[in-house]
Amino acid sequence: MDVGEKENFHPLILTGAGRKAGDRYNRAMNRPATLAFLLLSLVALLTAQTQPPRAGKVDIMPSAQLKPGMKAIAWTVFEGTVPEAVPIEIVGLWKNAWGPKQDIIIGKMGGKAQRTNVAGGMSGSPVYIDGKLVGAVALRLSVFSPDAICGITPIELMLEINDFDKTVPTDAKSPMKPVTRASVEMPNDLVRQVMAAADGALPQSLAMEPIGTPLVFSGFSEVTLREFGPLLRQQGINPVLGGAGSGSYNTKPVSGWANALQPGQSVAGVLVNGDMSVTGLGTVTYNDGKRVLAFGHPFFNMGPVDMPMSQGEILMVLASQFQPNKMGNATDIVGALKQDRHSGIMGVLGAESPMIPVNMKIRTQDEKGGVMKEKILRYNLFTHQKWTPFLSMMTVFNSISGINDFSDELTYRLTGQVEFDGQQKLRLDNTQTVMPESPAPAAMALTGYVGEKITKLFGNQVQMPKMKSMDITVDLIPERRILALESAWISLNEVSPGDEVTVKAYLRPFRGPRLERELKIRIPEGLPKGEHKIVLSDGESLNKLQSFFVTQNKFLDLPGALSLLNQERRNTQLFASLMQTKPTVYYDDKTLPSLPQSVLNVMQAGRTANRMISSYPETTVSQSSIELDQVITGSHTLKILVR
Fold first, then answer.
1. Which residue range is the domain that position 435 belongs to?
2. What single DSSP character describes residue 80?
3. pLDDT (tens digit, 9 = 90+) per residue, 439-454?
4. Same domain, 29 and 116
5. pLDDT per residue over 314-324, tens digit each?
6. Which DSSP state fits 55?
7. pLDDT (0 to 100) of residue 10
C-alpha cells in the first residue's frame, strides 16, 4: 500500500495532527522498520483521531491564528450519547459579526452534517484543530442553504462568561416579553437593500443566526404546543414534541455526576420535569471537571440563572434544509446552570437548583356530581420571575386538555393553594365554562386565571416570593354551567333603617328554563334618607373594581398583594350590594368605606405619586351573596327610597 492508499484509509489522516503523522509515516518508510512497528503507529494514529474528547484542561487555539482552508474536527452526538467526529473546513474569520470585537469563525461542515445540515441541538459542539480547542458550533446560515455552513463562537468569548457581573441583561428572553430573534446579516449592501425592500418576505434567508435550541416537550399534547408555541418561537426557541428519558421527579444531581457531560455530549437545561418535562437541548463545549460551557450562544439570555442541568440522549437528527433538529430526551440531572450569557451557558456539576413541586388532581364527575375517575400528576417547575407563571399556565392547560375527557362543553372548577416561604398561602378558586361572547376555550381561561395570580406575585416590585409548592384540584363537570342575570325585583321600594328586604334575581341558564333566586339584604341603621340603589352583580365585576384601584399603588408589598388576591370573590357567587354616595378608599390591600375627607387628606400626605390612595365615589354599606355553583355573568340595578 503506497502513501496515497494510506492517506485514503481514513478521511482525516491529512488534517491537522494527521498531516504531521503522515510525514512521520513517510520518513519511517524510507528507513528500516518492522511491520509491527508500522502497524502499531497506524493504530495509534487512527485512535487519536477517532476518540471523543474528555473533560480536563485543554490547549486553545486563538481565533487570530486561524487561516482559510484549515481543517478542523467538531464533535457532536447524532444518535445515543457518544459524540461523533465531523470534519470542518475553516472558511475565514468574520470580524465584529457577533458584536464589537466579537468575531465569528465561518466553517463548512462535512461528514454526516452535509446530509443533516447544521441542526438544532448542535449548539456548543466543540471544534478542534491539531488537538487545540477553537470554539463551539453556534450559528448557521439561515435556511435552505445547500451547504452546511456554520458559525463558530471562539472559545475566548465563551471563557469570559464566568467573569461577567451578576446583573441580569435587559433583553432577557421570556415568554411574557416577545423579542426579535438576534441575527447577523451577511456583509453585503445589496443583500441588505433587497431584504429591506422585501419588508420581511425573506426575513432570515441570508442571515447568520444562532442555531435554534430545540425545546423538547415530553408528555405534552399537540394542542398545547399549538396554543403556546408562538410565544416560544418569538424567542428563537423551537418547541418540539419528544419523550422523557427518565421521567424522574428528582431535582438533585444523581450519583456519578462527576463523570457526566464530556465535551461533545448532549446537555439540557430543565424547565419542567416529572410527569411532564420541558428541556432545552444543546452540546457541551468544554468541561474542566467542575464547570461546563455549552451552546456557544444564549439559551434565554437571562444572565445569572439557577436552572437544573441534565444529561441528554439523541434519538436521531432530522435532516432538513428548512429546520433540521436533533430529536432527543433529557435524562438525569447532574448539576445546575449558573450563567446564561451572550456567548454561551455555564453550568456547575453537582450543584442543586431549587424547583417548585406541583401536585395536580383531575377528577371527572358524572351528571349527579359523583367522581367517576381521578388522575394525579406530579411535576416540578423551574423557579424564575418570568418563566414560572408561563410554565404554570402551560402545564395546567396541558393537564386538562390532553386527556380523553376533554370537551368544549365541559365546565372546569379549579380549587387549590400555593404555599410560599414566610407568607400566607394563596387560595385558588375559579370556575370556567364556554362563554357565548368569548372565543377563548374554557380550559385556556382557567389557566389564564392561574397564570395571572402567579404573575402578579412574581412581578411584585418590593419582594420576590419564594414559592414552595402548588396543589391544584380540577373537577370536570359534563355540562355548560353558566347563568346570565336577566332581571331583578325587590319586595319593597320604600324602606326604613333596620328593615330586611327580599331581592329576587332572575337568571337564564344555557338552554334551560329561567331560574329564580332570593337574597336578603338589611337596611342598616343610620342610613341617610333619600334614594339609594341595590346592585346585583357577579363576583368577577367586584374583583375588577377593587383590583383597578389597588394597582395604582405600584409598590404594594408581597404580604399586601397576597392578602388582596385572597380577598377575591368567587365567580360562582351572586352578590347584592346596597350602595351609598360616599367615597370608598382603597389603601393597599384594605378597603375603607365612608372615609371622611379630613382623614383621607391626612393619609395621603407624604405619599408619593407611585403610592397613591385611590377612591371610588360610592360605598357598599351592606352586602349579601348566594353560591350557585355556576358561572355568573351580568348585573342589574334596583332603586329604593329610605324614609
1. 356-477
2. B
3. 678 888 899 999 999 9
4. no
5. 888 887 767 78
6. S
7. 32
Q: Between residues 502 and 243, which one has the greater pLDDT?
A: 502
Residue 485 CA from chain centroid, whole number: 39
Going 533 to 538 to 544 to 550, the CA torsion angle's sign is positive
Answer yes or no: do 186 and 314 share one domain: yes
- C-alpha to C-alpha distance for 409 and 396, rounded to whole angstroms: 18
Boundary residue ending a domain (477, 492, 510): 477
Domain assignment present for residue 342? The answer is no
On whether residue 126 sits in a domain, the answer given is yes
The whole-angstrom distance between residue 44's C-alpha and the CA centroid of its chain comes to 47
Residue 340 lies in a domain: no
The pLDDT value recorded for residue 151 is 92
Closest CA to 268 of 113, 77, 458, 87: 77
Residue 598 near residue 567, CB atoms below 8 Å:
no
Residue 584 is predicted with a pLDDT of 77
Mean pLDDT of 486-515: 92
Pair (304, 388) in one structural domain: no
For 532, the enclosing helix (H) or strand (E) is: strand 530-538
Task: Return the ∠ at Cα 142 (arms to 140 and 340), rounded to 5°.
Answer: 50
Take residue 270 and report the three cell numbers written for it: 430543565
Number of CB atoms found within 10 A of residue 184's CB: 18
Q: In this predicted structure, what is the pLDDT of residue 83? A: 95
Q: Would the pTM count as exceeding 0.90?
A: no
Helix (H, G, I), strand (E, B) or coil at 214: strand
Report d(CA 112, CA 101) in Å as an integer.
32
Same domain, yes or no, for 504 and 571? Answer: yes
Query: Is there a domain that residue 226 lies in?
Result: no
Continuous H helices in 30-81: 35-50
End residue of a domain, out of 430, 447, 477: 477
Whether pLDDT at 43 is above 70: no
Question: What would the mean pLDDT of 615-635 be, rounded to a whole number?
Answer: 90
Q: How many domains does the chain have?
A: 4
| 304 membership: H or E segment, kind and range | strand 303-318
How would you classify the pairing of strands 149-154 and 125-129? unpaired
Q: Which long-range contacts (CB under 8 A, 24 or more apart) does 288-292 make?
A: 288/55, 288/56, 288/57, 289/55, 289/56, 289/258, 289/349, 290/348, 290/349, 290/350, 291/162, 291/346, 291/347, 291/348, 291/349, 292/261, 292/267, 292/335, 292/346, 292/347, 292/348, 292/349
Q: Is the confidence at residue 460, as pLDDT, over 60?
A: yes
User: Is 560's pLDDT higher than 90?
Assistant: no
Mean pLDDT throughout 28-40?
A: 44
How many CB atoms lie under 10 A from the CB of residue 149? 18
What is the residue-wise DSSP string for 98-144? Answer: EETTEEEEEEEE-TTHHHH-S-BT-TTEEEEETTEEEEEEEEEE-SS
Q: Which three cell numbers stand for residue 362?
A: 383531575
